[in-house]
């Protein structure tokens, strides 16, 4: 398989964990664009946001997507907002198939509570976090719905099972 498989969706939707497992099942390599950015910048994502702001992060994200698109046969985990840039979206859709992992805001919020490295969702109160998640999801929903496949998950599901289902759908399960 030469085309890439891009996993997209909101932060904490399991793109990295599922992506690693899916790549194993498909016999493909794996790339996480956020990890690529951290390595390229020698800074964590919160440090990039703090020192240089979101526009600089988005520029690095575009570089990561251009790099990913130059590859063949990879499962690629995208940052939650990466697909919002029209140029990024064009590059992504021309170089691979897109799968959106979708969880309800309540599950995303429960996962975010354990993470302190998400600069776009730093609210300390649960209701404020949920409101921010809803706001960002509303901004991104139309693009997320453009994915070749959307995998709606209404409760916590073992990433192994999600990867199995996606591999089966893609028809390359080994």
Helical coverage, percent range: 40-55%
Assigned CATH superfamily: P-loop containing nucleotide triphosphate hydrolases
What percent strand?
Answer: 5-15%
**Overall pLDDT, averaged?**
88
Judged by helices, strands and strand pairing, the structural class is alpha/beta
What is the total tally of β strands? 5
How far from one another are the termini? 13 Å
Cα Rg = 15 Å
Return the CATH topology.
Answer: Rossmann fold
Q: What shape does the CA trace take?
A: globular
The level 1 CATH classification is: Alpha Beta
- Describe the strand arrangement of the main beta sheet, using strand numbers: 2-3-1-4-5
Query: What is the CATH architecture term?
Result: 3-Layer(aba) Sandwich
Biggest sheet architecture: 5 strands, parallel
Number of domains: 1
N-to-C SSE series?
Answer: EHEHHHEHEHHEH
Give me the number of helical elements: 8
Poorly predicted regions: none
Brief summary:
This protein has helices spanning 15-26, 33-41, 45-52, 54-69, 86-95, 105-112, 126-144, 159-170, and strands at 4-9, 29-32, 74-77, 96-102, 149-152.
Descriptive account of the structure:
The chain has 174 residues and is of the alpha/beta class. The chain has one domain (4-169): P-loop containing nucleotide triphosphate hydrolases (Rossmann fold, 3-Layer(aba) Sandwich), CATH 3.40.50. It contains 8 helices and 5 strands. It has helices spanning 15-26, 33-41, 45-52, 54-69, 86-95, 105-112, 126-144, 159-170; strands spanning 4-9, 29-32, 74-77, 96-102, 149-152. Strands 2-3-1-4-5 form a 5-stranded parallel β-sheet. Helix 3 crosses helix 4 (54-69) and helix 6 crosses helix 7 (126-144).
């Amino acid at each position: 398989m030469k085309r890439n498989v891009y996993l997209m969706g909101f932060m904490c939707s399991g793109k990295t964990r599922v992506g690693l497992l899916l790549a194993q099942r498909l016999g493909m390599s794996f790339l996480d664009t956020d990890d690529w950015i951290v390595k390229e910048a020698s800074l964590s994502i919160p440090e990039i946001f703090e020192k240089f702001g979101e526009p600089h992060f988005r520029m690095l994200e575009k570089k990561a997507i251009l790099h990913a698109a130059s590859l063949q046969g990879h499962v690629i985990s995208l940052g939650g907002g990466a697909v919002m840039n029209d140029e990024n979206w064009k590059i992504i859709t021309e170089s691979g198939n897109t799968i959106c992992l979708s969880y309800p805001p309540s599950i995303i919020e429960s996962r975010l509570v354990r993470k302190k490295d998400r600069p776009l969702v730093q609210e300390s109160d649960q209701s404020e976090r949920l409101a921010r998640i809803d706001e960002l999801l509303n901004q991104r929903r139309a693009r997320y719905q453009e994915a070749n496949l959307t995998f709606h998950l209404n409760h916590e599901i073992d990433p192994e099972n999600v990867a199995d289902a996606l591999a089966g759908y893609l028809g390359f399960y080994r």
